[in-house]
Amino acid sequence: MKSVFNPADVMELIYRINKLRPDSQPLWGKMTVAQMLAHTNVSYEMVYTDKHPRPNPFMKLILKMLVKNKVVGPAPYKHSAPTAPAFLIKDEKNFEAEKIRLLSHLNQTQQLGEAYFDNKESHSFGKLSAAEWNIMFYKHLDHHLGQFGV
After folding, report:
1. Quick one: angle between helices 33-48 and 95-117, nearest 10?
2. Which secondary-structure segment (H or E) carries 127?
3. What is the rounded CA–CA span in Å between residue 66 and residue 139?
4. 77, 87 in Cβ contact below 8 A?
5. Model pTM?
6. What span, in angstroms and rounded, lies between the C-alpha atoms of 10 and 2?
7. pLDDT along the chain (150 residues), means of 10
8. Cβ partners under 8 Å of residue 97, min gap 6
């Protein structure tokens, strides 16, 4: 799998993001392209902000047992798979603003590097290795860029 910590791989992601247009249509699913960008930003918001409340200990245990391996494991996501409530984007979003935020998050993540993320506590799954963080970030973004044909 490619890496959000590798500058060349991040440049490829940026190239793909820059191919999106405000009127890009999904190959599956119901989100607009602006909503998709906002949706992919949530993963980074959970690392870089306090915008999203943390799950209580019981819910965190459930998430670790039932969801973690799907999120940080290498198997690709299925089209139109269910998502966590924090990731549901129902209101309209500004395409350019969400795109700029996503590009900023990608650059920040790549610059902080693997060492910053290795054994870092995640919002929902406990401590993750740098490889697990990478899979979570890269697989999610790759899935949704593919959703919009880029």
Report:
1. 30
2. strand 126-128
3. 18
4. no
5. 0.94
6. 9
7. 97 98 97 98 97 91 92 92 91 98 98 98 95 98 98
8. none
